[in-house]
């Protein structure tokens, strides 16, 4: 479809059809100018229960399909998303504000999970284990867990869905998706394409509602749901884990981050600047793996800062539909206020704004560099989730590692060096699930994505991505003569 409006839907998709029970509407606004681009029916907890029932009914038949059959449908879905790439990218940019180039990139990235797990569906191997006595034959079989609840954030409205549900669908699970009410239109568009690809009714259900707490509670408390996969804040992840405890659900949690970006004095400064720009300002800093703290060794601090400030100053802020724009708006007014508050805290504690630092109506905030950052500023322990880049100075490798690990979070980390020995030493000491060495962009469907400490549990993507959606059944055949 060339016209993006052909992929705009106002109802949730449950049991193979568009339907609604809610009477109120959620206005989906373009953060560039706050214009309304769609009005989606606002569903409540009973409607989520209806979707869970549909997924529960559909599970036995979907599980019974061969891996090859499920793979073929997933590949058909992948093809339809690619065929409608421009329309989906337009919708994504309109509702999220991210530059059009980034939206296209997210579609390739997110669709890549569908393609990857379509192939992995046929490789969900079990094991034959030598018997512990001569007359026994032992097998370990992998089976789908059942109904999966996927709760996804606003910042990657396509990729966070496909990264969660593609492996679930590949092994034979059915799913209920609860996308963010801030960016639901992309989710509904790809659910429509999934239906066109041939997924049976009830296999993929998408429910949009503004009461995140109640919708999430239904998914967590339902005995018909076997697994919850969530991407979002650590605080909400802790709430969901508590709600899942009575039913002992499997959980995958991809939570907050506080990514350090370390530049050692033997690094290629220009390469490090390029990596810091890519790692910090993607989607205006509104991603969980975005650079949060830039730690630069004293000997090159001034040289790095000069080149980095120049590169940041050159970033163009504006409407993401314009091809030359690299920074769009923030998602809402709370995000803008948060940037202002964090920057004010830093300046009050001795920070120096080298470029940027101003909010622009309605939801823009200039890409900003703060020099002389210190450990007592909010940046040190809290996720920025916006276009502010604080630069810290360190003297020794040991100090850099201590500073980098001084956080409850452990999702992504980055460092730049040309010293081979240092690359091994530092990698081994960083307490993070992801480490980028001389690279600021590390996400791909082929790698295991996830964190440690308060950044969550489980891994998404890669060959490990199926593990969270399967139960292992041990089978022992005895008295074999």
From TrEMBL:
PROSITE patterns assigned to the protein according to its UniProt record, in alphabetical order: ALDEHYDE_DEHYDR_CYS, ALDEHYDE_DEHYDR_GLU
Give the domain of life.
Answer: Bacteria
CDD domains recorded: ALDH_F5_SSADH_GabD
Against Gene3D superfamilies, the record matches this protein to:
Aldehyde Dehydrogenase, Chain A, domain 1 (3.40.605.10), Aldehyde Dehydrogenase, Chain A, domain 2 (3.40.309.10)
> Which Gene Ontology molecular-function terms are recorded?
succinate-semialdehyde dehydrogenase (NAD+) activity
Which controlled-vocabulary keywords does the entry list? Oxidoreductase
User: What GO biological process terms are annotated to this protein in UniProt?
Assistant: gamma-aminobutyric acid catabolic process
Segments traversing the membrane: none
Query: Into which family does the record put it?
Result: Belongs to the aldehyde dehydrogenase family.
Spell out the protein name for this chain.
Succinate-semialdehyde dehydrogenase / glutarate-semialdehyde dehydrogenase
The species this protein was found in: Sphingobacterium psychroaquaticum
Q: Lineage from the top down?
A: Bacteria, Pseudomonadati, Bacteroidota, Sphingobacteriia, Sphingobacteriales
């Amino acid at each position: 479809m060339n016209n993006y409006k052909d992929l705009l839907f106002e109802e949730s998709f449950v049991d193979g059809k568009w339907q609604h029970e809610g009477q109120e509407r959620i206005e989906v606004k373009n953060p560039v100018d706050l214009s309304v681009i769609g009005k989606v029916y606002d569903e409540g907890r009973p409607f989520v229960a209806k979707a869970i029932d549909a997924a529960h009914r559909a599970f036995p038949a979907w599980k019974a399909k061969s891996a090859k059959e499920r793979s073929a449908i997933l590949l058909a879905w992948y093809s339809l998303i690619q065929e409608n790439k421009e329309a989906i990218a337009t919708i994504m940019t309109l509702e999220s504000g991210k530059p059009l180039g980034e939206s296209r990139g997210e579609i390739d990235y997110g669709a890549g999970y569908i393609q990857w797990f379509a192939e992995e569906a046929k490789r969900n191997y079990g094991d034959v284990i030598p018997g512990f006595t001569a007359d026994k034959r032992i097998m370990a079989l992998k089976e789908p867990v059942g109904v999966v609840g996927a709760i996804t954030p606003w910042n990657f409205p396509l990729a966070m869905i496909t990264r969660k549900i593609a492996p679930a669908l590949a092994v034979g699970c059915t799913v209920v998706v609860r996308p963010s009410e801030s960016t639901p239109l992309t989710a509904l568009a790809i659910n429509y394409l999934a239906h066109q690809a041939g997924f049976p009714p009830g296999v993929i259900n998408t429910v949009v509602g503004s009461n995140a707490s109640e919708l999430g509670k239904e998914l967590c408390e339902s005995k018909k749901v076997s697994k919850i996969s969530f991407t979002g804040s650590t605080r909400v992840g802790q709430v969901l884990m508590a709600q899942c405890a009575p039913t002992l659900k499997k959980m995958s949690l991809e939570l907050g981050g506080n990514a350090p970006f370390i530049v050692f004095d033997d690094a290629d400064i220009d390469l490090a600047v390029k990596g810091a720009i890519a790692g910090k300002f993607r989607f205006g800093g509104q991603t969980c793996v975005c650079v949060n703290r830039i730690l630069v060794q004293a000997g090159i601090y001034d040289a790095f800062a000069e080149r980095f400030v120049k590169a940041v100053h050159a970033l163009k802020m504006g409407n993401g539909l314009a091809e030359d724009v690299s920074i769009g708006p923030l998602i809402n007014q709370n995000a803008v206020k948060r940037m202002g508050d964090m920057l004010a805290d830093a300046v009050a504690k001795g920070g120096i704004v080298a470029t940027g630092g101003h909010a622009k109506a309605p939801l823009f905030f200039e890409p900003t560099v703060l020099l002389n950052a210190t450990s007592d500023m909010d940046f040190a322990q809290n996720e920025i989730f916006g276009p502010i880049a604080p630069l810290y100075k360190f003297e020794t490798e040991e100090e850099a590692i201590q500073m980098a690990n001084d956080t409850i979070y452990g999702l992504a980390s980055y460092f730049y060096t040309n010293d081979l020995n240092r690359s091994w030493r530092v990698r081994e000491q960083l307490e993070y699930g992801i480490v980028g060495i001389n690279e600021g962009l590390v996400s791909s469907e082929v790698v295991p994505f996830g964190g440690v400490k308060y950044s969550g549990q489980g891994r998404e993507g890669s060959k490990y991505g199926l593990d969270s959606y399967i139960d292992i059944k041990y089978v022992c055949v005895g008295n074999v003569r």
